[in-house]
């Protein structure tokens, strides 16, 4: 390990910080453009993909859900076959290739191939770069490790913050394909700096040494078989041999992941040889899985429903003189969440500590409930905004969207860090890795549902939006209130102080 440091931490943290910065720039730049590009007409000056909004939402849901789902095999490939370092390197290259495929004007096959390529790349890079960060702090105090992850988390949010202003502006205001190309170039820059400074990582994330040649060969055979099955199913669906629409496929995908989650939890509870206390904690993790899926189903509509609302019903005249159509890009609003995270994450960290000193820190179920309530209130704000659109038949101020994003960010800060921490604490020791997988599975389900919901809402008339937003307010907010009211019992049920 190098003696050089980065903000008082191992120099290798800077390597990973910058890699994650460019990867998140790539992901959020492309994410800000995806639905807007999909619904843009093919005969415009800046031609899009020309699909209806419901199909666009389904494509988005399939893509983002698959990104989270493929983190599971991506972690396994690194652990058993190539190591985290090589997984990050090749993941970055594959992500760049996928974005460049999106940048090439072509038919549906090429576009879907680009999305699938990005999914594979993120699946390799995303879970493993975090594992390398942890390896840099082996044997060091927990507080120092937490501080290192906080710095790393800033790289995530800075990349997400900047991307919509650069890739989003280029894509929406000039050429969609050029926006995807910018995202690909950003990932290449990240891979290049990673390769040039990789030696600062020392031995962190190297290929597993405890895997025999026979085990590695068997692992590669399993990867090849799994890949062949996925390719075959994709080909059968694309050619119409298996008749299913994109929206239907997204519904099957979301439903299938929920079924997998229930089967897994039932199997662990019934056949996992758990004692009574362990079973109670697993039941709480199962509840967290459902809450996470519901939360992300609401939160991730930022890139679907709210992105389309920004395009169609938000007054974007501020700085509009800089652009040909007199309006700034709708993609800019995708930077609101990371801006709020950068500002308020330290505030929430301080607040939990301050409440803890006074024995007032809410339990984990209560924090999850609060997160859902905040998402529900965000939809209530959007209901009022939609009512104003219908009543005045004109666009509304951006403050409605920004307030909604602020509330959702507060919800994210209540749920995301708390969820990751508590799944590891509550899991039976022999199931920690698999239980962490259910957390990512919950996020995958939520993203898939967000695409389906967003496509449905975005494809309707403005007059239908107030009722739809109110329904989502009742679902998320109601679930959150039930969880808050049940939190004392849930806390007692687990015999923990969570």
Q: Would you kindly provide a written description of the structure presented here, covering whatever features stand out?
A:
The chain is mainly α. The chain has helices spanning 12-39, 53-69, 71-103, 108-136, 142-173, 176-197, 213-238, 246-271, 276-299, 305-313, 336-357, 364-392, 399-426, 432-458, 465-494, and strands spanning 5-6, 9-10. It has two domains: 1-211, MFS general substrate transporter like domains (Growth Hormone, Chain: A), CATH 1.20.1250.20; 281-498, MFS general substrate transporter like domains (Growth Hormone, Chain: A), CATH 1.20.1250. It has 15 helices and two strands. Strands 1-2 form a two-stranded antiparallel sheet. Strand 1 and strand 2 (9-10) form a beta hairpin. The mean pLDDT is 89.
What's the structural blueprint in terms of helices and strands?
Layout: E1 5-6, E2 9-10, H1 12-39, H2 53-69, H3 71-103, H4 108-136, H5 142-173, H6 176-197, H7 213-238, H8 246-271, H9 276-299, H10 305-313, H11 336-357, H12 364-392, H13 399-426, H14 432-458, H15 465-494
Helix pairs in contact: 1-2, 1-4, 1-5, 1-6, 2-4, 2-8, 2-14, 3-4, 3-6, 5-6, 5-11, 8-9, 8-14, 9-12, 9-13, 9-14, 9-15, 10-14, 11-13, 12-13, 12-15, 13-14
* Unreliable parts: none
Terminal residue distance: 37 Å
Strand content: under 5%
- The number of helical elements comes to 15
Q: What general form does the structure show?
A: globular
Rounded to an integer in angstroms, the radius of gyration calculated over CA atoms is: 22 Å
Order of helices and strands: EEHHHHHHHHHHHHHHH
Structural class computed from helices and strand pairing: mainly alpha
CATH class of the largest domain: Mainly Alpha
CATH fold name of the largest domain: Growth Hormone, Chain: A
Mean pLDDT: 89
**Biggest sheet: strands side by side, in what order?**
1-2
Sheet with the most strands, sense and barrel status: 2 strands, antiparallel
Residues in helices, as a percent range: over 70%
Secondary-structure arrangement, i.e. CATH architecture of the largest domain:
Up-down Bundle
Number of domains: 2
Number of strands: 2
Could you give me the name of the CATH homologous superfamily of the largest domain? Answer: MFS general substrate transporter like domains
């Amino acid at each position: 390990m190098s003696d050089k440091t980065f903000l008082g931490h191992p120099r290798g943290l800077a390597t990973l910080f910058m890699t994650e910065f460019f990867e998140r720039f790539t992901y959020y730049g492309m994410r800000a453009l995806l639905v807007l590009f999909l619904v843009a007409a093919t005969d415009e000056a800046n031609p899009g993909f020309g699909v209806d909004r419901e199909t666009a939402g389904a494509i988005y849901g399939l893509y983002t859900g698959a990104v989270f789902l493929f983190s599971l095999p991506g972690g396994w490939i690194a652990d058993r076959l190539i190591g985290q370092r090589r997984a990050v390197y090749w993941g970055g290259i594959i992500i760049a290739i996928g974005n460049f495929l999106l940048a090439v004007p072509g038919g549906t096959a090429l576009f879907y191939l680009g999305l699938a390529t990005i999914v594979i790349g993120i699946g390799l890079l995303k879970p493993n770069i975090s594992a390398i960060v942890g390896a840099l702090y082996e044997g060091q105090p927990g507080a120092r490790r937490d501080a290192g992850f906080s710095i790393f988390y800033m790289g995530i949010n800075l990349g997400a913050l900047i991307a919509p202003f650069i890739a989003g502006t280029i894509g929406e205001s000039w050429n969609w394909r050029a926006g995807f190309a910018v995202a690909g170039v950003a990932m290449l820059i990240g891979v290049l700096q990673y390769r040039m400074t990789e030696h600062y990582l020392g031995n962190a994330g190297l290929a597993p040494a405890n895997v025999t040649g026979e085990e590695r060969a068997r692992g590669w055979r399993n990867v090849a078989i799994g890949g062949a099955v996925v390719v075959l199913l994709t080909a059968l669906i694309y050619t119409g041999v298996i008749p299913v629409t994109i929206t239907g496929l997204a519904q099957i995908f979301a439903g299938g992941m929920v079924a997998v989650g229930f089967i897994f939890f039932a199997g662990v509870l019934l056949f996992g040889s758990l004692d009574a206390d362990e079973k109670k904690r697993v039941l709480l993790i199962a509840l967290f899985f459902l809450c996470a899926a519901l939360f992300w189903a609401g939160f991730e509509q930022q890139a679907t429903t709210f992105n389309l609302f920004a395009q169609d019903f938000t007054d974007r005249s501020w700085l509009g003189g800089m652009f040909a159509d007199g309006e700034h890009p709708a993609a800019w609003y995708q930077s609101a969440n990371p801006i709020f995270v950068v500002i308020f994450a330290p505030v929430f960290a301080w607040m939990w500590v301050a409440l803890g000193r006074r024995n007032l820190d809410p339990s984990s179920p209560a924090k999850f409930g609060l997160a859902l309530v905040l998402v529900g209130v965000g939809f209530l704000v959007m209901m009022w905004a939609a009512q104003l659109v219908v009543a005045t038949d004109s666009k509304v101020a951006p403050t409605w969207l920004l307030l909604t994003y602020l509330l959702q960010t507060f919800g994210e800060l209540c749920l995301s860090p708390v969820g990751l921490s508590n799944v590891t604490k509550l899991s039976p020791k022999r199931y920690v890795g698999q239980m962490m997988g259910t957390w990512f599975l919950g996020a995958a389900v939520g993203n898939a549902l967000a695409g389906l919901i967003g496509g449905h809402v975005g494809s309707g008339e403005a007059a239908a939006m107030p009722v739809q937003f109110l329904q989502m307010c009742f679902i998320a907010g109601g679930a959150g209130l039930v969880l808050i009211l049940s939190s004392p019992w849930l806390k007692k049920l687990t015999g923990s102080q969570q």
